[in-house]
Write a structure and sequence with these properties.
292 residues, Glucose Permease (Domain IIA), two-stranded antiparallel sheet, 3 helices, 14 strands
Length: 292
């Protein structure tokens, strides 16, 4: 049976109307909030308290007296820079060095009072003339030709031993020999002659001092060009050298002394490391040194 009670139907409509009104209000509020948010998006937010200290409220009766006191031209005047309280002292100005007056270079004046025999020679020194006209057996260094010359070492000549002593490591390029310092078997392109530290060392033959230096293999050394492509290196010497680069030495001339061996020869004790090469190829020193 259908319910036709008017009071029940009226209460139902009332409830529906209330909810419809409520949802309509909520929707309107949401739409309004969305519109305000979109309108203010990206705009800086201002708070009232940000201006409380700077804001000054004046009345209309105070505006005209205030404007009357304003100097309009002051807006266009340049601002004055405040004077600093302390000025740093100026830096000293560098003074240029006084220029000395240029003195004319005196020209050479011939000594008219000197006898003819004392006049300065105009030709090359006699030593240079002798070197240039020396026989073919006289060696002339390619860089200092005409200044240094000596009788070059030739085939059949015999060299002196730099020191007297035992050979503690011999020349060997064809087979391996034991090296106690490196603790290995290897070839050896020199001979090592034992001698007490401080023993004087002599040049084995005439020659031209090419180089004086030091390295970890041979320690302090003197390199001498003996001529005809033959070069000798006398190594493991002391700090004091008795020759200079560019000096011509004779056979038997002292060139230094036995020094403390380098790290590559320390197990042999004090000794002389003697190495000869011809055109940069090692030569057995026994082929050049005098038999003993």
């Amino acid at each position: 049976m259908k319910n036709t009670n008017p009071e029940i139907e009226d209460s139902i409509f009332r409830k529906k109307g209330f909810f419809i009104a409520l949802y309509s209000c909520l929707g309107a509020v949401a739409i309004l909030a969305l519109v305000i948010t979109v309108a203010n998006f990206g705009q800086p937010s201002f708070q009232a308290e940000d201006y409380e200290e700077d804001a000054a409220y004046v009345g209309a009766d105070q505006v005209e007296p205030y404007l009357a006191q304003v100097d309009e031209e002051a807006w266009f005047r340049p601002r004055q820079t405040p004077t600093p309280t302390a000025t740093p002292p100026p830096s000293p100005t560098p003074q240029s060095r006084p220029m000395l007056p240029m003195q004319p270079t005196p020209e050479a004046v011939p000594n008219v009072d000197a006898p003819p025999g004392d006049e300065p020679p105009t030709s090359p020194p006699p030593a240079a003339d002798e070197a240039l006209s020396a026989p073919a057996t006289t060696y002339q260094h390619p860089i200092n030709a005409g200044r240094y010359s000596f009788q070059a070492f030739e085939e059949g000549d015999v060299m002196l031993w730099p020191v007297e002593g035992d050979i503690v490591m011999d020349f060997s390029m064809d087979s391996l020999i034991y090296d106690p310092t490196l603790d290995q078997f290897r070839t050896n392109d020199n001979i090592r002659i034992s001698a007490p530290e401080g023993t004087l060392v002599q040049a084995s033959a005439r020659g031209y001092v090419l180089e004086i230096g030091r390295n970890v293999v041979r320690g302090n050394y003197v390199k001498i060009d003996h001529g005809n492509g033959l070069v000798g290196i006398y190594g493991q010497l002391g700090e004091n050298k008795l020759v200079t680069v560019g000096e011509v030495v004779r056979a038997g001339q002292l060139i230094g002394s036995v020094g403390t061996p380098s790290m590559f020869g320390v197990m042999h004790g004090p000794h002389v490391n003697l190495r000869f090469t011809r055109e940069d190829e090692p030569i057995n020193p026994h082929e050049l040194l005098a038999a003993r």
